[in-house]
Amino acid sequence: VQVVESGGGLVQAGGSLRLSCAASGLPYSTYCMGWFRQAPGKEREQVATIADDGSTNYADSVKGRFTISQDNAKKTLYLQMNSLKPDDTAMYYCVLDHCTNVRWYGEYKFWGQGTQVTVSS
User: Would you state the pLDDT for residue 30?
Assistant: First the structure.
């Protein structure tokens, strides 16, 4: 399984970025996907997730600003980030796994290498 993120970069506060995640070699046809982030010195945070039924979940810190979506045909996940704040600065990771595994164990097996998002004030 390969999970590759793209779209990170440097943006001013108030700006927008769109992250993409391309997955290949998946052993199953349906799966849950999401985005995590981790800033230096901080704990890893679940940002947004999307399940096989299309239901989404967001961290309180990004609700109303970030939108997670997916293109099932292209096996691609997106994270549209608007009204970015300096506190959003972090390495963003795309994750995925079979939804049964996620619901049973509360974690995702497959992770990308991450894409850096830096928001300047």
Answer: 79
> 60 by DSSP, 3-state: which?
coil
Give phi and psi for 106, each to the nearest 5. 70, 25
Low-confidence ranges of the chain (pLDDT < 70): none
Cα 61-67-71 angle, rounded to 5 deg = 145
Mapping DSSP to helix (H, G, I), strand (E, B) and coil, where does residue 83 land?
A: coil
> Which residue blocks in the chain are alpha helix, DSSP H?
99-105
Q: Which contacts (CB < 8 Å, 24+ apart) does range 50-54 have?
A: 50/77, 51/99, 52/99
Contact 94, 88 (CB under 8 A): no
Task: Locate 24 and state its tokens.
Answer: 């290949």
Span 13-44, pLDDT tens digits: 999 999 999 998 887 777 899 999 999 999 99
3-state secondary structure of 16: coil
